[in-house]
Amino acid sequence: MSDLPEVKPPVVTPVRAVIALCLLAPFVAMLWVGSYAKTDPAFIGIPFFYWYQMLWVVLSTALTVTAFQLWKRDQRARASAKGGAGA
Predict the structure, then answer these.
(1) What is the pTM of this model?
(2) What percentage of the chain has pLDDT greater than the value 90?
(3) How many CB atoms lie within 10 A of CB 71?
(4) Mutual orientation of helices 14-31 and 48-82 as an angle, nearest 10°?
């Protein structure tokens, strides 16, 4: 027998699905240009095209931080379930 550890396939859990959605949403929003390629409604004189993209900068940051926090929590839960030391 080999001394290599057993490799298990990745586990898809609801938390990991939420993480994936948090990371995928900004890409979908920015790649779907037809949804924001317009000038109205303007916000404080800034055309929609520009302020929508700037809004997604903030939203992307929040979603990435959320995904990272969920990932850390998931890794801690997996480590404690194995009986190992948490990361």
Answers:
(1) 0.77
(2) 64
(3) 15
(4) 160
